[in-house]
Amino acid sequence: MGGSAPRRDCHLPVETTSFVDRRSELAEGRELLTRARLVTLTGPGGVGKTRLAGRIAARVARAFPDGVRFVHLSGLYDPALVPHAVADALGLRDYSDRPALAALVERLRDRRLLLVVDNCEHLLPACAELAGALLHGTTGVRLLATSRHRLGLTEEHLLDVRPLPVPDPDGDLSAADCYPALALFADRAAAVVPGFRLTAANRASVARLCRRLDGLPLAIELAAVRMRVLDVDQLLRRLDDRYRLLTAGSPTVAPRHQTLRAAVDWSHDLCGEVEQLVWSRLSVLAGSFDLETAEAVCGGPGRAPAPATPTGSGVPWTAAPAPSAPARAPDPARPDGKLPSTPPPTSRPAGTGGRRTEAGGPGAEPPGTMRVLPLELERSRERGTEGAAGAEEATPLHPHDVLEAVAGLVDKSVLSRETDPRGGVRYRLLDTLRDYGLERLRERPGEEHATRLRLRDWLQHRAAVCERDWFGPDQPGIVARLRADQDNLRAALDFSLTTPGEALAGLRLAGTLWFHWHACGAPREGRYWLDRALDANPEDTPERARALWAAALLAGCPEDLTRGRRRAEQARDLAHRLGDAAEAAHAEYVVGVIRLFSDDLAGALDHFRAGVARGRVPGQHLSLVGLDRVELACALSFLGRADEAVAVCEETRRLCAEHGERWVLSYVERMLALAHTVKGDWRQAERHGREALRLKLAVHDILGMGLTLDLLARIAAERGAHEHAAVLIGGADRAWADVDSSRWGSAALNATRRGSEERARRALGRTAFRRAYERGAALALTDLATHALRDDEPARRTPGQARSSSPAGEAVPRPASPAGPRPATSPAPATHGPDTVRLTHREAQVAELIAEGLANQQIADRLVIARRTAEGHVERILSKLGFSNRSQIAAWVTAQR
Hints:
Blueprint: E1 10-11, H1 23-35, E2 38-42, H2 49-60, E3 68-72, H3 82-90, H4 100-108, E4 113-118, H5 124-137, E5 141-147, E6 156-160, H6 180-192, H7 203-212, H8 217-225, H9 232-249, H10 255-269, H11 273-282, H12 291-298, H13 377-383, H14 399-411, E7 415-419, E8 425-429, H15 431-441, H16 447-469, H17 475-484, H18 486-498, H19 503-512, H20 514-519, H21 523-536, H22 542-553, H23 561-578, H24 581-597, H25 601-614, H26 622-638, H27 642-659, H28 663-679, H29 682-699, H30 702-718, H31 722-737, H32 747-764, H33 766-778, H34 781-789, H35 841-851, H36 856-863, H37 867-881, H38 886-896
Parallel strand pairs: 1-3, 2-5, 2-6, 3-4, 4-5
Antiparallel strand pairs: 7-8
């Protein structure tokens, strides 16, 4: 498969607790997938559908050469985004203007993979449409769905996931250990009461408890956590009291729903008052979250930063620091869990409030900062309880209170703790518990509105800080952070664009994320949000100017360029009317890029030469300053002025080095490779092309790697390394398949590829060329990059080989400039770089075995260690290197040899 979805790739959720045996369901699920292309696991909430789907997928993964991908829908509420979520899980970056679902089907037409689509029940029509389109438009794609309700397609096969079987507590319990429900309770209880096990003395009580809980895994897990303070008989008595209370009030509710509701109600009642409040407020978070986000969302009025306010002055601003409560001694322990009697005071951060001051003074604009407008804490406090007349006064919480509540909720299994690929800690509410918390939140008038405002304002602040820091060394961390927050960003944008009076804030957030949409692999979704936000905000504002040029930058195909240029020019004119020089400069960059796309080389040269000569205007983002120079070098190279292009690139490379920047630098290196190709200096061209590829691999820039592989294939063919060129052509075609297999119809880009192929095919012969081409097409992108970076085939120029007379035989691609950056689609290696990482001796052994292609069990057998120990080593290696899959480890090991 293409680089963004390597062969045999299996992206399944990491299991943090043991899996209780469901042997019959596993066997039935595997059997169904052998004869049906759509299998839906149905059952009530909390029954274990997601875990079972993951296990089934892992068991059948070897049957799918193009891998298994898991699509999480629990945090998605907009049906239009379902195809986007699938494309994102597959790593597909679509730049076309075709309907999202049609584009997805086209990309998957020839692939053999399994899609696990989790939590379909709240998006049934959209999921049914997705499944139908994939079933009818592809031949090798199979779907495994989980839902509380069937999708309703005739091709659908159902697997009913039932609660775990429970033995009769009054019968023969000699074989009770074989019952999964009792085994689950014992396993989870042992986690909180070390040494707990089923005995003759407690089997009957545990069986009675599990029967009372109808064998529902989630209910059993919630009850087992209480073993920290109660014994089994006490658990059973208290649960019986809760169950009787619930059934007395709701006699018409289905029994299994009553059971789960009783267990969740009981867990809620056993939480302290602060924990209950934090649980309800966290329910507005659609995805996982970190502690900072929890503190901002749960803090109460004035605890989270408010969105920026347009001024139209054109004066640059910096992001104010995230507001924090004044320091105070930790509250004395409150075993009763009551709320603090006096809310902590809040205050405006000292200093300038975010406005830029004299150079070097407080609030001075750091290098690379794009204009970020001030954070209005007073406005946030004023709006904190809006949304319902006469709303209860929201209770503010100190960050210490939130931390203690989060810790308590983790202990009670209400929150699950996760580790992200970079080693950070995040938390998640299970869907059932999130729904329950939201129900509780809505019982407090005005609380839901106020809490969603705090979430949106916090994410605006985070996006602004990420934008400010983008031209710097933490780009991989920023990519990882925003991808982890993706579901919450979607929820915040949807809230803003569907809530009266909040549309401008939605436009602001969508525009602030321009670099995320453009550089982190989300062009289609970026266009979706920017188009919605622009339609909702027709007024002339700085936010509209920003959104117009950002939408133009994401123009996805030749047909979209006309509208893109019109929008960029509108943005430029509006920014000039508002006196906003920075936004005008950003819009000018986009106008110039589209001129380059449109083959107006002389006009683009004049445009970028004027922009570079003007210099950086206050507030202009350094990424776009650097890209102005990259595009100038590109135009110079295409016009045969290679020496001038090299001089521009060297100056830009120094700028990137000063800030530790890699994304723009990768394009600078590629432009140097292009310029030296124009000069016929193949050795220098290859050196810079390899460095460009290495940098792009670090940020997993799929499009950039496709462009660079095309250029390296050209260089290899020119130097006489024909087999190497054929391998690179095959790999480049696979990378382009995830972007646009026609290379946007660019005659020059396709001419470059055809020229390389013709030269290599002529030298190798048709059979040898096809063999090498298919070898490259079969490689995962990380393996292909490793192959390209190896100097194992001495390049040579054949006698009489002439230097190319054309400027690299390459012209402007559509829709991305040959230099212009495109997506860094996934979290990249840690900012310190994998080359500086020191693995322990055992970790180095495990990494070598991964590079040999061994699975975890094989590694365990080879090293004579437990499988779980081997898995732990693999997770630590991934964390240390900042990687997300085993292929990247293998590529890294190969590169170190």
